[in-house]
Here is the input.
Amino acid sequence: MENGKGYLLLIDSATEVCSVALGKTDGTVIDRREEHTPNKHSELLALFADELLREIPGGARAGLSGVIISEGPGSYTGLRIGASFAKGLCWTLDIPLVVVPTTEALALGFLQTEEGRKLLSGLSDPLLLPMIDARRMEVYTAAYTSDGFLAEGAEIRALVLTDDEDRAYLREIATDRAVFFFGPGAEKAVPEMAELLGAKATFCPGIMADASSMLTRGLEKMQRGERADVGYWTPFYLKEFQATTPKKKF
Here is the structure.
């Protein structure tokens, strides 16, 4: 990269997991930090990032080439915290900000696991359905191919697993393919997916947000010149934030 810089900071704060990683522009993951306890992003994200940036010879100003961030959909609060930190860092250091949809990041993470590679081995046209919890029986999801790109006709959307139209959409996009669903919103979908798709649907537990999974895809985007406008970019919330009124205590 220009000026001899060769490090990238990766951030995923879209789900309950606070995940930060340090990578190199040669595709190597150097180190990572993560916390699975909910509501820790405001407390830990900047701390994790600072620890990792200290590993860059000469510091961030000397060696950081850009920031890659999971852009959503997901937790409104988590996304805001991650976006604020990433934009501030990119603005201060005058480095590019590259964004990757959170559903795509989860799909890439699945493809990078040994389990994912084994499950997909020998299948001609499997479908990946990363799911992020959107409360109640709703999930944020999108259909991806085995190379981690959106399937034809697919889009990132909010689906209510018990809604007739949304269930019809899942049947239509799945057709007769093997479907693998995973992510922080997938467990509650198990009975619905079994009813909808039967043996074609496989639940893959344990796939959670991992910032390092975005490194290769983020590098591809950076090399194509795809970068967010640091001044105007906002996370992909998908739905408007809805505040709830606390219950009165007596």
Remarks:
- The chain has eight helices and ten strands.
- Strands lie at 7-12, 18-24, 29-35, 64-70, 97-100, 127-133, 138-141, 157-160, 179-182, 201-204.
- Residues 135 and 246 are 17 Å apart (CA to CA).
- Confidence is low (pLDDT under 50) at residues 243-250.
